Every structure is written in structure tokens, then in C-alpha cells.
């Protein structure tokens, strides 16, 4: 069952520059405090959805050209939401719950921890402070970051798709590719991400097969309120 669902998702999302990676809710809940648990049985089938560098040209720009009069919030969020709602229609006999990376619970906690989901699904390795043996940061707060084996840091985690009626007790957990394997590189990665994230150098911590275009870099480097202009949208759309 998981394979059929995965193939249907791949055929729907691949042409849009989106990836879907399967996991069991129990894998995710096992590594988090109860406050962050997903409220589903452990064997429930879920997928984490990533956007790759090609999503900008394959999905976002066509969506904006077609729907620009209807764009009332962040165009990327609205584009992903639009396409995932259409994906749900491909499963008329299944309940499909969608959680987006920007959604919050009433407690102001995120609905899901995106980087943890990507790690347990084997989609990208979540490098954290605990992955460095000789910690050089003392009392500084150090945030972790996911690195994709193909795209490095040139990708984003957008959503979860959950299938509450599909239980997959025998699904085997993939291991994420440990592509930043030396202590020195891990320290460099976390230093760049935490203290120099604006220059984006952390994204190229490994040799990448594809990165954002110059147009896409400019878009994401622009303050959100000004991105509408870059896509040819009027400010009224916001």
C-alpha cells in the first residue's frame, strides 16, 4: 500500500519540483518530547514534502502567472497549498491530512518539527550540536540544520501528508545520508548556519548537484513584503 501511495505522489509532485519521503509517525514521535508528538497511532503512514531548486520554475512561476489575481498571502505557501490540495484529490477513498511548515498550534508551537521529520524519513540529515564531539560553543545557543545529499542546503521542507487510515507496521526506516561526515565540516556547517546564515554559504557545505537560480536567490533574499513586485504582482495582492 505504501508503495502505491508513494508512486502516486511521485508522479504528481515530481514534475513540480517537489519530493515526498515516507515515514511512520512512530519514528517521529520516538525522538521528540510528548508535547511535539503527532496525534496518530505509531504505524500511521506519513510523508514529508520537500521543495527542490526546480520548484521555482516548475511550480511557482506558472502558478503565479495563472493565479495572480487570487494570491493573497505568501506566493510560495499558497502555491504549495494549491498543489497539495490537488494531490489530495488523487486519493478519493482515503483521508489525507496536510500540515504546513508555517502552521502553528494554539500554544504557538509549530504543528510539526520539519527538520526532525526530514531526518526520520531519510530525506535529509539533521545536523545538530550533539553531532559534534568537541563542542566549541560554550553557552551559545546553536540551532541544527538539515543537509540534503543532492541539494545541500538548497531546498526547503514544506509540509506533511498523513494517511490516518493506512497503517504500515512493516515499513523499514531508511537512514539519512551522512554527507557532512567529518567533525571539522560539521563545526563549519553549524557555525555558518548560526552566525552567517544570510550569506548562504552553509548551503554549499557539500558538492551540490543543483542549487537555486540567481533569480530564485534574489527572490528569497528579498523581504517578504517586496517579493510580490519581483513576481510581477501588485502590492494590492498582498
From TrEMBL:
Asked if the keyword Lyase belongs to this entry, the reply reads: no
Cellular location of this protein?
Answer: Cytoplasm
Among Pfam families, the record links this protein to:
MMACHC
Q: What UniProt keywords are attached to this protein's entry? A: Cobalamin, Cobalt, Cytoplasm, FAD, Flavoprotein, FMN, NADP, Oxidoreductase
Q: Which cofactors does it use?
A: FMN; FAD
Source taxon at top rank: Eukaryota
CDD domains given in the database record: MMACHC-like
User: Entry's InterPro entries?
Assistant: MMACHC
Q: Listed GO molecular functions?
A: cobalamin binding; cyanocobalamin reductase (cyanide-eliminating) (NADP+) activity; demethylase activity; FAD binding
**One biological process term in Gene Ontology:** cobalamin metabolic process
Catalytic activity field: apo-[alkylcobalamin reductase] + methylcob(III)alamin + glutathione = S-methyl glutathione + cob(I)alamin-[alkylcobalamin reductase] + H(+); apo-[alkylcobalamin reductase] + an R-cob(III)alamin + glutathione = cob(I)alamin-[alkylcobalamin reductase] + an S-substituted glutathione + H(+); 2 cob(II)alamin-[cyanocobalamin reductase] + 2 hydrogen cyanide + NADP(+) = 2 cyanocob(III)alamin + 2 apo-[cyanocobalamin reductase] + NADPH + H(+); apo-[alkylcobalamin reductase] + adenosylcob(III)alamin + glutathione = S-adenosylglutathione + cob(I)alamin-[alkylcobalamin reductase] + H(+)
**GO cellular component terms listed in the entry, alphabetical order:** cytoplasm
List its EC numbers.
Answer: 1.16.1.6, 2.5.1.151
User: Ion transport among the record's keywords?
Assistant: no
What family does the entry list?
Belongs to the MMACHC family.
Q: What is this protein called?
A: Cyanocobalamin reductase / alkylcobalamin dealkylase
Amino acid at each position: 500500500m505504501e508503495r502505491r501511495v508513494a508512486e502516486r505522489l511521485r508522479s504528481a509532485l515530481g514534475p513540480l519540483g517537489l519530493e515526498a519521503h515516507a515515514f511512520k509517525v512512530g519514528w517521529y514521535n520516538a525522538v521528540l518530547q510528548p508535547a511535539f508528538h503527532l496525534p496518530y497511532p505509531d504505524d500511521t503512514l506519513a510523508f514529508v514534502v520537500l521543495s527542490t531548486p526546480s520548484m521555482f520554475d516548475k511550480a511557482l512561476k506558472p502558478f503565479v502567472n495563472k493565479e495572480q489575481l487570487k494570491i493573497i498571502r505568501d506566493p510560495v505557501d499558497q502555491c504549495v497549498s494549491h498543489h497539495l490540495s490537488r494531490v489530495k484529490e488523487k486519493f478519493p477513498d482515503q483521508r489525507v491530512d496536510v500540515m504546513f511548515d508555517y502552521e502553528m498550534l494554539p500554544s504557538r508551537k509549530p504543528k510539526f518539527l520539519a527538520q526532525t521529520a526530514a531526518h526520520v524519513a531519510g530525506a535529509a540529515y539533521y545536523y545538530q550540536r550533539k553531532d559534534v564531539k568537541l563542542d566549541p560553543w560554550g553557552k551559545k545557543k546553536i540551532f541544527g540544520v538539515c543537509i540534503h545529499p543532492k541539494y545541500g542546503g538548497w531546498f526547503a521542507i514544506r509540509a506533511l501528508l498523513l494517511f490516518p487510515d493506512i497503517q504500515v507496521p512493516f515499513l523499514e526506516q531508511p537512514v539519512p545520508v551522512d554527507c557532512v561526515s567529518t567533525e571539522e565540516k560539521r563545526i563549519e556547517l553549524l557555525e555558518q548556519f548560526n552566525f552567517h546564515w544570510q550569506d548562504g554559504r552553509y548551503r554549499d557545505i557539500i558538492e551540490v548537484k543543483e542549487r537555486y537560480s540567481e533569480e530564485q536567490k534574489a527572490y528569497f533574499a528579498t523581504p517578504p513584503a517586496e517579493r510580490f513586485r519581483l513576481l510581477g504582482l501588485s502590492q494590492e495582492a498582498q
